Amino acid sequence: MSLKITELARANVRALTPYQSARRLGGNGDVWLNANEYPLPVPFEMSQNTLNRYPECQPKQVIERYAAYAGMTPDQVLVSRGADEGIELLIRAFCEPGQDAILFCPPTYGMYSVSAETIGVEYRTVPALDNWQLNLPAIAAALDGVKLVYMCSPNNPTGNLIDPEAIRQLLEMTRGKALVVADEAYIEFCPQATLAGWIAEYPHLVVLRTLSKAFALAGLRCGFTLANAAVIELLLKVIAPYPLSTPVADIAAQALSDDGIALMRQHVVELNANRAWLATALTRLSCVEQVFPSETNYILVRFTDSPTIFKSLWDQGIILRDQNKNPGLAGCLRISIGTRNECERLIAALQALPGTAGIVEQA
Description:
Elements: H1 5-8, H2 11-14, H3 22-25, E1 31-32, H4 60-70, E2 77-80, H5 82-94, E3 101-104, H6 111-119, E4 122-125, H7 136-141, E5 146-152, H8 164-174, E6 179-183, E7 205-210, E8 223-226, H9 229-238, H10 246-255, H11 258-283, E9 288-291, E10 298-303, H12 306-315, E11 318-319, E12 321-322, E13 332-336, H13 340-351
Parallel strand pairs: 1-11, 3-4, 3-5, 5-6, 6-7
Antiparallel strand pairs: 2-8, 7-8, 9-10, 10-13, 12-13
């Protein structure tokens, strides 16, 4: 019998469960509240006509503008195809397959494990505490052989910030042993909590950023890694020759102009207001058990019957993200913050569900 093509693939890839992105999960809807995107398009257009030429590996204007925005120097900034590429580049640069490990604390973002598995690097998990903070003693006990510790703050999908004192303790226990990678994809919704300013004090700290969320450019696929210059130099050795296409670099530079940053901050004000409205409205529904505090553009909600609610909304074209399979998140759905109209449509649909008994009157 001839060898099956799939048998030629690496065993770890054959066994791999791919990351289930919102688009892979599909759905036919007109209220998309499952991917933490900005709900409306932004007014950027291509300004260059140089598609016949290869782009710069690290477009100068994009790097300089992001460095200025983030309070870094240009040699401390790397731009890549989304923060997802930054996650993977760090593993490729720092972890020996079959020897080193990464560590993260679920429930959290799913690409840390997928990237490690793809490259053939062990991943270790130390479950977060019940309040979704770091279990520092358990992390300390699991650090042997770990080169990278991934920490998402604000955390996806829970929406909470990690306690800064716990982060300092983590940085102290990993000094000289491992890098701590702070995923700040949602930091624009709580900019006071950024760790970028800590890099000078902790040279083993790396910060990941993106234009996908508050900058409303999820379709652009543009992310940033902030780190000391020595780390950036290593990542430049393993990054693809042309990670950013010319249109991406063109629009990213516009988004990082003074006007572009002002537009982003306007998005944050609008979404934070919608989040507050939605959180209050959700707490009044009898089908809702708990609305968790959030510092992001989404809310995690525990429902009395989340499978039925998820499917009913799905069938009505209101697409949420099911979190039931995540550790500690039984009964939970994640709801991206849409326009006020989309938030109102969601609440109206929940109020109309049979057996939910409508609205619970507040005392």
